[in-house]
Design brief:
The chain is mostly helical. The protein has six helices and no strands.
Amino acid sequence: EPDVDDLLNIMKDAVHCKKNKNVDILHLASQICRRLHGLRFVNCKSGKDRTGMAATLEQIQILSREYDLAEHEYQKALDAMRSEGVRIENCQKNIGHRKFAFSTLQLTTFPYQYRAPVGSFQSNVSS
């Protein structure tokens, strides 16, 4: 695995890249913070929908990298965390629905790794 200096150089390139919705920056920040034993927070306005997608993705990446989650189980585990895990419970507590507040059209604009699984979102739930 690359060391922190290498990751920082990759981060510099990612920040200056003109890529639309460059989520590589989030992944690199996560890796750098973990290597430095630091803390990092990702939070959208309500701390519910987009935050849930980012938090569950990071959890699965940790499972994959540090606990040898099988590659063929990656997407299934990610979808399970998003549809049955703590983040969907946050939705229930915040708005009274076990659904993320995304529309199908909105999700098509998201990077693939940040899309909620079918059945876990609804466009007309209040946030």
